[in-house]
Design brief:
With 318 residues, the chain is α/β, with parallel strands linked by helices. The protein is 30% helix and 18% strand. It has one domain. The strands form three sheets. The protein has a six-stranded parallel beta sheet. Strand 4, helix 3 and strand 5 form a beta-alpha-beta unit. Helix 5 packs parallel to helix 7. It is globular and about 55 Å long.
Length: 318
């Protein structure tokens, strides 16, 4: 099975020490976001956890702990976008993040190769929105510059266009959807640029018709992608589709909403800065929970876990 860390927060950026402690103790607790008194307990044991999946805007704090994660196969998304402090007020300088990306890639890709895996680190350039400042031409120039900097460190980049979730609109009321014309122009330009730097563009839950512009619309974290990183085929139980039309393996997330300190205006995972600040104060690196500790009224249930790996080497047909 897969342990996800990145749909609700950014664990590498803000909670690396906590995660290292969870690995050392061999388990983690995660609250149900809809029923907070219900807690799932996951064993962090490579006999049942086939892969750890991370999604971060700043991998640097986790790099010193990678050796302690080396018992596990891993897949990493690192998000690097061209927005400034007006949109991403607390994200580190993009050049720093790109340097960290290269350092991360060198270690993680070498580790994946031990299992016969590859393509275990992916760049994300999302979400994309268009404004007077961040125009289509601006995005194309920024994408080309970043792709050049990351050449050789990854062979894939994931893009998506901003979704107007209620939380996103609350945080960023002036944002507008991206037009079909702009999507087509960006996909065509990005596909051409990426190919020149040894990368394939994948989309995240976008219109399949965009494949006409040279991008892969099959998904960003599908079974096939994770098998390639693992170097082995998986037998995935049914029922792991979390969003209609999405074939990515997104379940078993150990994060918590309202805990990310980046403060991005387009964020869907934070909806109250006061709660974010409170949760960050309540974080204890020694606790099995990301925020606070277990309370008397909490109900802890062991999550069913078993390996999905089949022992069959994955043939690379890409």
């Amino acid at each position: 099975m897969i342990i996800n860390t990145g749909s609700r927060t950014d664990i590498p950026a803000f909670f690396s020490e906590w995660f290292r402690n969870r690995i050392r103790e061999g388990y983690v607790l995660a609250r149900n976001p809809l029923f907070p008194e219900k807690i799932s307990r996951y064993r962090l044991d490579p006999s049942v956890v086939d892969m750890l999946v991370f999604c971060t805007k700043n991998p640097a704090p986790m790099i010193p702990y990678l050796e302690e994660l080396s018992r596990f196969r891993q897949f990493w998304f690192v998000t690097i976008t061209p927005y400034g402090r007006d949109i991403e007020p607390c994200v580190p300088d993009k050049r720093e993040v790109m340097r960290s990306f290269r350092a991360l890639s060198e270690k993680v890709q070498s580790h994946a190769a031990l299992y016969g895996g590859r393509s275990a680190v992916s760049w994300r350039y999302d979400p994309i929105f268009i404004s007077e400042k961040y125009s289509v031409d601006y995005h194309i120039r920024a994408f080309e510059e970043m792709a050049g900097e990351l050449e050789g460190a990854t062979d894939q980049v994931v893009i998506s266009f901003i979704d107007l979730y209620a939380k996103t609109v609350k945080n960023f009321p002036e944002v507008m959807p991206v037009s079909a014309e702009d999507k087509a122009r960006l996909c065509a330009a990005f596909a051409k640029i990426a190919a020149s730097h040894g990368m394939r563009v994948r989309t995240c839950l976008e219109d399949p018709s965009l494949s006409a512009y040279g991008v892969d619309v099959a998904g960003c974290m599908t079974q096939a992608i994770l098998e390639q990183a693992a170097g082995e085929e998986m037998q995935v139980p049914s029922g792991h589709e979390t969003r209609k039309g999405c074939h990515c393996l997104l379940g078993n997330d150990i994060g918590q909403y309202n805990t990310c300190g980046h403060g991005c205006r387009y964020c869907y995972a934070n909806y109250d800065t006061g709660i974010v600040e409170q949760n960050l104060r309540l974080h204890d690196p020694s606790s099995p929970l990301l925020v606070g500790r277990v309370r008397p009224e909490d109900e802890i249930t062991d999550s069913p876990q078993s390996s999905w790996l089949t022992g069959q080497l994955r043939l690379d047909l890409s």
